[in-house]
Amino acid sequence: MAINTVIFDFDGTLADTNRMILDSWQYTYKTLRGAEEKEENILKTFGEPLALSMEKAFPDVPASEAIAVYRSFQEKHFEEMIRPFPGMVELIRKLRQEGCKVGIVTSRLRNTTVRGLAQFGLLEDIDEIITCEDTEKHKPEPEPALEALSRLGAKAEETVMVGDSLFDIRCAHGAGIRAILVGWAMAIGEEDKQGEDAPDAQAESAEELLSVLRAMK
Description:
Blueprint: E1 5-8, E2 15-16, H1 18-33, H2 39-43, H3 50-57, H4 63-81, E3 83-84, H5 88-97, E4 101-105, H6 110-119, E5 128-130, H7 143-152, E6 159-163, H8 166-174, E7 178-182, E8 201-203, H9 206-216
Parallel strand pairs: 1-4, 1-6, 4-5, 6-7, 7-8
Antiparallel strand pairs: 2-3
Helix pairs in contact: 1-4, 3-4
């Protein structure tokens, strides 16, 4: 069935926040442990709910304390360190012009999500924003995607979710939504693109993503 609704992940899909997230983690490691962590270990957490990642990384520190350290770095450096991935702002505007509803489903807080969208000039182009504050369960559980469908008044079979991680794919599929994996972030390896968690389609650029979405319409 043709799609009329597109849901985007924020970090690693719409917004290039990779360096900021890595630096936020390293700041947290240096603050709480006195030394940085291997970057490859941090990359494995990309797409995972922050509280879960913090519990695993710092089991002897209350997650709320570790998160506060992490977010203190982001609060100070957020706008200066993020930018939209090439072509994504234009892609969202084209989708809106073509009659699609557009939503955001992210594990990020609403405050920084809205700040990022405002910086990109996209706030008026987004119909609904679902953040970690809007559901009790988070990606990879389907609740955030289901909440987005409800608020958007959309049907799962007419919706596609675009993300950069295995958590996005599982969240979408759990809600009965097709998933497109983008290839310009760091959150997923080739071994994760197989089997039941495989995306329904992939795209390596905003231009290719637009073509894939138009083919689904």
